[in-house]
Amino acid sequence: MRGVILAAVCCLVGTVASAATVVVRAGEHDGFTRIVLQLPAEATWSLGHKADGYLLVTEGGDVGFDLAKAFEHIGRNRIAAIEATGTPGALMLKLACDCQAVASRTSAGLLVIDVADGSIGDAAKVQAPLDPAGAGKLSDLERFWLRRFSTEEMTPSDGSGTSESPSPAETDQSRLETAARLLEWQVSRAMGQGLVEPSEVTPDAQLHPSAPGRADGPDMPATISLGVSAGTAQDQASGTAVRETTAPACPDPADFAAGDWADGRDFRFQISEAKDRLVGEFDAVDAERVIQAGRLYLYYGMGSESRSLVRAFGIGPEDDRHVAALAEIVEGKVRAGNPILALDCDADIALWRILADPARISKDNTAAVLSSFSKLPVHLRNELGPRLGSSFLEHNDLQAARAVRDAMARTSVSGEDVTLMDFEIALSDPDGRPDPTALVARLSQQGENTARSVVLAVDAFRRRDLPVPVEVSDLAETLSYENRNLPIWGDLRIARARALASQGQFVKAFASLDEVPRQPIPFPADLFQMLADKADDDQFVEVIFDHMALAMAPEHVAQWNAIGTRLVTLGFTKEASGFLRRPAQSDEDRLLAARVEAAEGRKDAALKEIRGLMSDAVVAFRNELLAQAGGSDAGGSESVKPLPPAEDAVQSDGAAATGILGATRALIERSSADRLEIEKVIKDLSEP
């Protein structure tokens, strides 16, 4: 009896020893899910497409599969299940998406199966097996790859070893044919992944015409016409025709309908319910429940918590249904690679895209954006409304900004935000002159909108051409430090500089922007206009010579005439000439050119520059030049000035006339007064 038992145990041990258990591991990558198996060296494999996924079949060795850790690091968005079938050595991959699988075996013997999003092409339906162990059964293509790997891996890094030499029987012809088949195989994989598309095949005779006097020998391979087309950025730069790419397809609108992500119950109950059972059996993450919990956080404006939740459970951007992208928008910290920036869709999607990139606002999508904004919950309207309204105001759409304001005003908790929006709208209105007194009174309360109130108050004072109170400029300085890591930091720095300039402290105003160490902000062009119009001579000269290169930058061209006129008036003719626009774009440009010519002693050239211009400033300057030149214009056309109609010569109330006649009369009166003074001096000197 004991002998029978020992024999049975030996048989059992032998059976177990001959079986190989393969641990199935998987991981998420950018755009695909990867499955890795360490098959026995003697095993061959094949991967075929089935109705609900892919079937992996192994042969040559008793292979079993350990699936305990298969879903340890992946969700079920692409792969719904991995199951061992009734056939030994067979493994079924059930898909949860319209995906395709591509398998390959590495030089280390690992079998890698990548499941990527996209339609399944014919070239990817079946993967041929690869058996590096049985050299006698290898194709030329497989042998080519094995030779390449062995050559690269067997050569020592110091160059002392020798690589495997090709067989003497392997001619150039066979090697070229092997490379051609390799190219065909690689292109077929690329077609299956959607990286290249079929195109019209060019006949061989057109692709490779025989050169005169050349005979193609028998060692030249036949031309292989693959009939595919692909494009690169380099092709576009060189003008080569490439395959057109299209914008990403519009996702499900439900992924952006934030108003539908919660109900009227208390937040604590909803979030507790949403975070229950996020992990199921075998520690498998329920991706859908995680996404729903992330959306609930978004509904209540908690962008950071939402993004942290989906990332903590290993759900990447390709599977989180835009939760992390929306979280960035809610936080106001949108990165350059945010996928919503690439979408061009309507309804709720358009609202989020414009919040991410206000430059995308257009008349075509305004109605859809306003409709979606009105459907947001109250707290999100209050959170996102000021940013959306400001974006519309930047595009001079006061009507849309007022619609945003009205949507916020329909709630009972948005009074403060609505008040601030009223100020912004009034400031954007060309005829608006809001009284900053109410805003200044609010600043002492130090609420969450204090920073925004300071910026608006400074703009309101500037609109009324009034100096900003010192306490407001000091508060702007304090808040800019406290908010140094927030987007409003730059607005506060600019408000501080404008406030100092309004107080006549131009040197300090420009220096405050020079001190910005980390985050470059756009320099406010209106500071140069204020400098040219209001600064005293000493401050103007000090600031403009310290910032000459910045003032001459193209973005400040609107202030060139004011700066150049101030410079030439102070005697800096050479520096003023640097602000001339050639060719002149306006009457102001020609007047500045005339001032420069006159300052350099070329009065005739100056008169020529402004010939035909009739503005008050031009007429006054021309008459001044004519008086200095004795009333003669080299061109002859300016000696007699045209007078306005008689009815405009004298106003009905007897006041002095304006325009051409007013300037001429003022010049005559000054000349008469000077003449009387001279006569008086002569008379006084002649008396004993």
State the end-to-end CA separation.
164 Å
The low-pLDDT segments are 1-18, 120-170, 200-245, 632-658
Give the tally of β-strands. 13
Structural class: alpha+beta
Order of strands across the biggest sheet?
7-8-5-4-11
Q: Work out the radius of gyration.
A: 40 Å
Assign a percent range to the helix content: 40-55%
Q: How would you sum up the major sheet?
A: 5 strands, antiparallel
Report the mean per-residue pLDDT as an integer: 74
Number of helices: 28
Name the shape in a single word: elongated
Q: Strand portion, in percent?
A: 5-15%
Explain the overall architecture.
This protein is an alpha+beta fold and 688 residues long. The protein has 28 helices and 13 strands. The strands form four sheets. Strands 7-8-5-4-11 form a five-stranded antiparallel sheet, with no helix packed on it. The chain has a four-stranded antiparallel sheet with strand order 2-3-10-9, with no helix packed on it. A hairpin with a 2-residue loop joins strand 4 and strand 5. Helix 8 runs antiparallel to helix 9. The N and C termini lie far apart (164 Å).
List the topology elements.
Elements: H1 2-18, E1 19-23, E2 25-29, E3 32-38, E4 44-50, E5 53-59, E6 62-66, E7 79-84, E8 90-95, E9 99-105, E10 110-117, E11 126-127, H2 140-154, H3 172-192, E12 197-198, H4 204-207, E13 228-229, H5 233-238, H6 267-274, H7 287-299, H8 303-312, H9 323-331, H10 347-356, H11 366-374, H12 378-394, H13 398-409, H14 415-428, H15 437-443, H16 450-463, H17 470-482, H18 489-502, H19 506-514, H20 526-534, H21 537-546, H22 548-551, H23 560-569, H24 573-577, H25 587-599, H26 603-609, H27 616-628, H28 659-686
Helix pairs in contact: 7-8, 7-9, 8-9, 10-11, 11-13, 12-13, 12-14, 13-14, 14-16, 15-16, 16-17, 16-18, 17-18, 18-19, 23-25, 25-26, 27-28
